[in-house]
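User: I'll paste a sequence; please echo it back and then give the predicted structure.

Assistant: Echoing your sequence first, then the prediction.
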Amino acid sequence: MNGLIGLGGTLALLLVLGAVIGYTDRTRFSPRWLLIAALLVAINDALLTRAYGSLPDLIGGEWNWQGKLLALAATLSIAATPAFGFRRVGLTITQEPGSLKAALPVAALYCAFFVVIAVAFPDGRSSGEEVAFQLTMPGLEEEPFYRGILLLALDQAFTGRKRFLGVDWGWGAVLSCFLFGLAHAFGFSHGSFSFDPMTMALTAIPSFIAVWLRLRTGSLLLPVLLHNFGNSFSLLA
């Protein structure tokens, strides 16, 4: 029940913010795509939680392998549909011509951010399962969702663009980063909603770098690799 209430709060924030943003520029706003984006968030959340605990955990272990794999399978299935498409959502290893010259220094900045975090907030001992999970699942599942199908849906909902730092930004990029931060920092438990500003900052800010890399290179390859580096570096250092 707590998970469903937390999801409801996230969707309410998305729809209210989306409606306010959209109706400031109605000619470039698609309410239908905003609703599709909300549906994607709901599907992703349900699968990550194994339908809020109603599905048996067939894989086991201390980490959420099954939830991540179910969510990834759904993301890939959606990406395969004509309305999305693998290349349109960045599921390609092909990089835009000349993009790596600009992208690699930014990737180095992303890595440096997490090196600083690892030094400032060192982790204790980690199990082999935790290291294996953090080296694979976060980037493989979250990037195709947040910087892939969800970003595309939100970009279809808000089609206005502003050129900045060599890429065309829209409200879709901002909202996808906002939702990524909320997924880590916002929830409902013990009868009330909770929000952790520090967690929001440590997740939403790097996600803007990941979005820039996705938009600049046309691919999710670097965001996936860097995401897993960020999650696992402190465990390996």
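The longest helix spans residues 128-157. The chain has a mean pLDDT of 93.
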